[in-house]
Write a structure and sequence with these properties.
Helix content: 55-70%
Radius of gyration: 20 Å
Largest sheet: none
Structural class: mainly alpha
Strand content: under 5%
Number of helices: 6
Number of strands: 0
């Protein structure tokens, strides 16, 4: 490729990405994207810290954490492409979490509050929800 061709490709982000993909394919490289739902380590750590403060009992926190890890990987904006379930606890529909706060789309504390309320009302506790999750692969 000439420098002018590369310059034109780089000037357009879509062309740049296509150019990189073509170049990679030509040389036998495989491009892999990170999962779209992956939470940043800082965001996940922050959400876990919030949950730990809201759930001081170690056993209940561990059960809650296991569910959230499986459901969303601690990604506050995780969306299930099949069902549309949303957030840390994969509420379906996600808008249900508005009962815990209007900032439900982005605030981990609001999502954790809603998730705890759900787990407590439906399963008695996060540990009860985790027991159900282990038996069924969902909760």
């Amino acid at each position: 490729m000439s420098v002018s061709v590369i310059r034109r490709i780089v000037a357009s982000p879509k062309k740049a990405l296509a150019g990189v993909a073509v170049a990679a394919a030509t040389t036998g490289m495989v491009l892999a994207a990170a999962p779209a739902q992956a939470a940043t380590p800082t965001a996940a750590s922050s959400a876990k810290s919030i949950a730990h403060k809201m759930i001081p009992d170690a056993a209940q926190f561990n059960a809650f954490s296991k569910i959230v890890e499986h459901e969303s990987g601690w990604n506050v904006s995780a969306t299930n492409s099949s069902s549309g379930a949303y957030g840390l606890v994969q509420a379906l529909p996600g808008s249900k979490m508005a009962t815990a706060g209007s900032d439900w789309k982005t605030n981990p504390k609001t999502q954790i509050k809603w998730g705890l309320d759900y787990m407590n009302s439906r399963y008695g506790s996060p540990a009860g929800a985790w027991n159900f999750w282990q038996a069924n692969g969902w909760y």
